[in-house]
Amino acid sequence: MKDLKTLFQRCGADALVVISDKNRLYFTGFASTFGYLVLTKDKSIFITDPRYFEMAQSLEEKGIEVRQIANGVSATALLVSVLKDIGAKTVGYEDTELTVNQFQTLQKELAEFTLLPCGGDVNYVRSFKDEEEISLIRKAQSVTDAAFKQLLKVIRAGMTEIDIRVELEYLLAKNGGEGLAFDTIVASGVNTSKPHAHPTDKVVENGDAVTMDFGARYHGYCSDMTRTVFVGEPVAEMRKIYNVVLMAQRNGIANAHCGMTGRELDSYCREVIKANGYEKYFTHSTGHSLGIDIHEEPRASMYSDQPLLANQLITCEPGIYVPGVGGVRIEDLLLVQEEEVIDLTTSEKDIIIL
């Protein structure tokens, strides 16, 4: 089980009811589309229906008790019974995940308990990755790197952005990815000035930049990486933009260390871009963490005073986007450790001209 001691120290509840699919996966390692997970400092109870009960029984090997919802008994009635059995008075809930309707239902069904919002506490605990999580993220990233290396042999003038996306997503699956971490971004030519461009039927032409932001999912955990390559010789302005972004990213990674704030990491990248006259064209933050979600805490932005601590992850992805000209983004995934910061991304970053 995850760090329940820290979680309950922070949230102050007697028990926590986990409703979201992703947090049930986080705390149990079991993927399901329905269920309630009741957590206490020393006990975990998973409530589910017959669709998952047989598979969920494997959780008992981890010390998680599994309860099946009986015919004629509502899920919330069993939930209330479990909370009473464990003597809970205050019950935490995921205020960061529930819809208004879900919260109102929970409030009604658990009226006899005092409800405490604990979503931020769950997110804090999730920001620190254990050895198993790091291993899964490393695997997801290795899938992503392998797919990119193979894709370089495929990209050519005459393909559309959609063609490239299809090839890339095929290679992610072929190399062991179990799904996409997020919707794949592929942009070419002038479309590269749009940081989150959707792939279109635009044809890649000689001299075009092609920016690809993509990631695999492995056992529920994400990877994330961006590379910009050129199909044929780029114009001088785009070559300059590429070199500035690369310098900025390398400066950020070289200066990254445990204990620095997200603001500090962002500034190491941003100051290089500013010094080269492109400050107004770097329009997003430098990075974010990931795990089960593609965007998690902590963040690397000019607004973040949150420190980057050991066993947290952070992307480093500066970019320059000039409308009517094009854009470049380069992204690596970093693992923060006490004594060093490890770059989990192995793909080439020096300018690639296909």
From TrEMBL:
Residues 136-338 form the Peptidase M24 domain. Belongs to the peptidase M24B family. Keywords: Aminopeptidase, Hydrolase, Metal-binding, Metalloprotease, Protease. GO terms for molecular function: aminopeptidase activity; metal ion binding; metallopeptidase activity. It holds the Pfam family Creatinase_N. This is Aminopeptidase P family protein. GO terms for biological process: proteolysis. InterPro entries: Creatin/AminoP/Spt16_N, Creatinase/aminopeptidase-like, Creatinase_N, Pept_M24, Peptidase_M24B, Peptidase_M24B_aminopep-P_CS. Transmembrane segments: none annotated. PANTHER family: AMINOPEPTIDASE, AMINOPEPTIDASE YPDF. SUPFAM superfamilies: Creatinase/aminopeptidase, Creatinase/prolidase N-terminal domain. It comes from Candidatus Fimimonas merdipullorum. Residues 2-127 form the Creatinase N-terminal domain.
